[in-house]
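Quick illustration for those who missed Monday's session on complexes.
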Amino acid sequence: MMKITVFGSGYVGLVTGACLADVGNDVLCIDIDQRKIDMLNRGEIPIYEPGLGSIVHANTEAGRLRFTTDIAAGVGHGLFQFIAVGTPPDEDGSADLRYVLAVAQSIGEHIEEYKIVIDKSTVPVGTADKVRDKIEETLAKRNKNIGFDVVSNPEFLKEGAAINDFMKPDRIVIGTDNPRTTELLRTLYTPFNRNHDRLIAMDIRSAELTKYAANAMLATKISFMNELANMAELLGADIEQVRLGIGSDPRIGYSFIYPGCGYGGSCFPKDVQALERTANQIGYEAHLLEAVEKVNNNQKTRLFDKIEKHFGADLNGKTIALWGLAFKPNTDDMRAAPSRMLMEALWKKGVTVKAYDPEAMKEVQRIYGKRRDLILCKSPEEALDNADALAIVTEWKLFRSPNFETIKQKLSSAVIFDGRNLYTPDDLNKLGFTYYSIGRKP
Ligand SMILES: NC(=O)c1ccc[n+]([C@@H]2O[C@H](COP(=O)([O-])OP(=O)(O)OC[C@H]3O[C@@H](n4cnc5c(N)ncnc54)[C@H](O)[C@@H]3O)[C@@H](O)[C@H]2O)c1
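Prediction with nicotinamide-adenine-dinucleotide bound:
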């Protein structure tokens, strides 16, 4: 049993805290958001993440997982002090380290004995040095000399599969400059490292860069496919055939080469941007990263462009049924979601959106509030009623095999704009639909 404190009870912090408690540790989760902590203390889970609720409940009941806004108690509790707060984009796209450094300051203000401070947030290379400096500076003001180590331990979990990813990680990256700390972290992660050794120890800067490298590589694969999809449309080729053709090469593989209406979420867009800013700061021109971002921003307008091309520039008074709001299935997260760009473009043109998502209905209301041109529907079918066309933005399982007869009956014209290539064009054409997808002939 180890004593662990986790700062930040969001997607990463809450999953980290819950999973570490689940293997027997004593975990105290800290957040500055009183509302979130109150919810957690009432047994409510502030986010949608499959399987998270039952782990949180089991471990709170067992007394191994607690939540508080008491920062001093947090610093006092754990030998391991995880930082899992947000690192949103700053005005210029670089990672905003305000929250990470606020935690470092809190640790400096309250530390009384040796601690291991672990950066789990995604942070630019050099942040561990900043965290160390901030703690030292705060300790100096207190005239105290207390030992601590700073470790980089980036998180690779995927929203929607976060519990499984944390419990069975494909890698555990530990960046330290102290071999003793590496061993302590090895012990901490032993329960998640039983099948074979997944722990990769390296220097701190390399660990920090590894996280950005992973996300930038995945984003690059998506943008590459989207670029090819756009070309396929112009060339009369079918990108889905091309996908199968290249995925069969083991050097390329089938993962992450689905064309679509762009990547979103809380990680890829901001991490690619932050890495670009890092490149700028060191005087390096990151041509590839810039292109990845540009292609993605362009891709997020593709569905709107298709809608405008089909109906003509005057869209005023039209209604579009929208299936999917979350940036991907199995989450309620709408940060940088392609659905947002589409809805905002449609609203500008006077279009009403009738939206349905299995999990993100509360989130869309939180972001946009009540507005006349956004109708929140209780089912996919309800969204179709009297709509002029259907647009699909998130590939939830529920949308994969719908009743096309119902769709045709309910829509005032049988038109589908599919941003995730869920259906086969020939089948839909036979059923009497005008079907637009990505990288395939209409
Ligand atoms: N979401 C993901 O899938 C994912 C995956 C890997 C890495 N990451 C990285 O992990 C970090 C956290 O991401 P997230 O999605 O969990 O963010 P999030 O916004 O869901 O949660 C961050 C939490 O930190 C809290 N917070 C802010 N300042 C605080 C402070 N001083 N003390 C305590 N709590 C504080 C916020 O109130 C919020 O609840 C980011 O750097 C992100 O890039 C995210």
